[in-house]
Amino acid sequence: MSAQAAAAPAALRRAAGWAGVAHARLLSVRPRYVVATLVAAQWAALAALAVTVRHNGWVYYMGGDQLWHYTGAYLLAHRELAPTYVGVGWTTILTPVAWIAGRNLVSALPFIILFNGLVLVPLATFCMYGIGSRIGGRVFGYWTALLWIVLPYVGIPYALHGYHQKYTELTLPQVLGLGAMADFPSVVALIVGAYLCLRALDDRHWAWAAGAGFAVGYALAIKPSNTAFLIAPAALFLAYRWRAAIFFAAGLAPPIALLAYWKARGFGRIPAFSRSEPEHRIAAGSGIFHPLTKYTHNNTWTQLHNNLIQLREVFWSDRLLEFLAVAGMIALLIRSRRAGVFVVAWFVAFLLLKGTYINARVEDGGFWRLLLPAFPAFVVLLASVPLLVPGVRLHARPPTPLRAPRRAVAGALAALGVVLVLFPFALVASAKPIRPPHLAALQSSSTLLPVESMGFFATPEPNGILLQWRPEHSAAGGIFYRIYRTAGEGGSTCVVNTNGPDACGRTVGDTVCGTVIKSAPTNCFLSPAAIVRATTRDAAFLDRPAPGTWTYRIGLTVNWLNDEQFGDPYVFSEPATVTVG
Predict the structure, then answer these.
(1) Cα–Cα dist 278/271, whole Å
(2) DSSP string spanning 157-197?
(3) Do residues 387 and 493 both lie within one domain?
(4) pLDDT one-digit tens code per residue, 131-152
(5) DSSP 8-state secondary structure symbol assigned to residue 508
(6) Are β-strands 432-433 and 80-81 bridged in parallel, bridged antiparallel, or unpaired?
(7) Tell me, what DSSP letter sits at residue 463?
(8) How far apart are the C-alpha atoms of 210 and 414, rounded to whole Å?
(9) 198, 244, 366, 560 — which has fewest CB within 10 A?
(10) How far apart are CA 174 and CA 61, in angstroms?
(11) Backbone phi, then psi, for 554, in 5-degree steps?
């Protein structure tokens, strides 16, 4: 026998011995210390990314619904209600922040990002450890939490050079909570709900199942598109512990009721169940699956196929990602049937729903934001791949009874209900729907913006129209202004109080408003005829229009590059109308 052949088993034995010693020492440390160390490392990595990636003060790339949520929160803080096109959960959480920081989202970003980083980030990591430990013991929990922290940063070298900017500047800030979008907090709520679902399966106390339902329901209240997650707990409880489904549904009900009330007040009806068919067709059973088909008509298998092809173009290997997902599914189903059913249903449901959506595209980064709710499930699948090695076994934690007193459990649930359900109910119920002529918010570029005076006025001068406004400065990010000009007098189009489907769309000045349905807010937006006359960082501008009547607005604008060519307005001024000649 050669020396090399004899040395190889000895080296393997030494490595196995070192691994055994490390395993024993790891188990000798309390879990809270290990997970706290992981959270500290996660904070350090997040701080390094926040400093190095391109940004404008506290403003990072946000490509979603952050303005809808923050404007809605600002209006609620002043007892006003706009059309409710987004969920209620994140909006009501931001209401105290908006009451303090004011109408400009830029001023509120430090509070929001710190809340995400100091509260939601460690909460997600602790729950990811909890999910892993419930499946395979403490070491598997540590491994799962470690992958949860490391995997987003592994994508930086894994992405090809041409996709590096889109991944680091457009994707990572949204995935890691460096902004005010609702995606990250909704995913954290899903992770909490997933951990409580697995805990409810082991510990027979009703509070775990009810808490799981409440967490999942609040994730739906933040982003209703997270409804696909319900497939996973339904499969888990109905297959292994159907009584827990009753308490899960009881916990799910309050946030869903809050969401329904929010939508009904903002639309005059619940959009998911509104139909345009005649009443006799509805009575005959037409449109039974309307809530499902209404939100899936933009989903195609072709889009999912295109996304899989685009993965090949932007990453080092798309086959490796596909192999890891499939291998993790097989390993988890073999080693832990219950966890496999739950996690596989979680991942596949979002992959099919979001991966087939027409606006989910890998090429522009939207695919990652829309599939963010499936990312925790993918992490668990990736952590399960080593279980395919023969001899590797899971050591699931034994069921531990809930030792907290019943009064403490009831008090904690009641406190959550008051803060996250009753308080938002009171906010929405006390808000007054916005109405012309004094509109508190306008839609522009598919976002909702607050309308404030900004000290804006227009003065006719011999050589033109002098526009002046109150300058705004924020230490959280650079600000500039866009001047919008529309031919005609300012004002709203029309307000029709009716329960019918008809809408009016005439344009008067720079505002277009639709029909008021029942007591819902008026849906108004900036006229398409409004043009951007100029962009400036000063607090004054001299315009020289042709003779006629002109309506002006100022749009306070921000973007993560602090570049005047990009970005959406964050605040609109009230209009000023001037007649020339």
Answers:
(1) 16
(2) HHB-GGGHHIIIIIIHHHHTT-SS-SHHHHHHHHHHHHHHH
(3) no
(4) 999 998 888 999 999 999 999 9
(5) B
(6) parallel
(7) T
(8) 12
(9) 366
(10) 7
(11) -110, 135
Return the half-sphere exposure (C-beta side, CA atoms, 13 A cut-off) of residue 501: 6
500 and 456 within one domain: yes
Angle between helices 301-314 and 318-335 (to 10 degrees): 110
User: Are 381 and 478 found together in one domain?
Assistant: no
Token pair for 465? 């129209």
Token pair in block for residue 187? 């995913």
pLDDT tens-digit series, residues 397-427: 665 555 666 677 677 778 888 889 999 999 9
Structure confidence at residue 373 (pLDDT): 94
- Spatial separation of the C-alpha atoms in residues 149 and 383, rounded to whole Å: 12
Residue 442, strand partner residues: 449
**Residue 338 maps to a domain:** yes
What DSSP character marks residue 551?
A: E
Which single residue is written with the structure tokens 């005959």? 284
What value does the CA radius of gyration of the chain take, rounded to a whole number of Å?
Answer: 27
Q: In terms of residue numbers, what domain contains 63?
A: 30-271+292-397+407-430
Q: Are 442 and 519 in contact (CB under 8 A)?
A: no
- Any residues with CB less than 8 A from the CB of 229 and at least 6 apart, and which? 190, 193, 216, 219, 220, 346, 349, 350, 373
Identify the H or E element spanning 548. strand 548-558
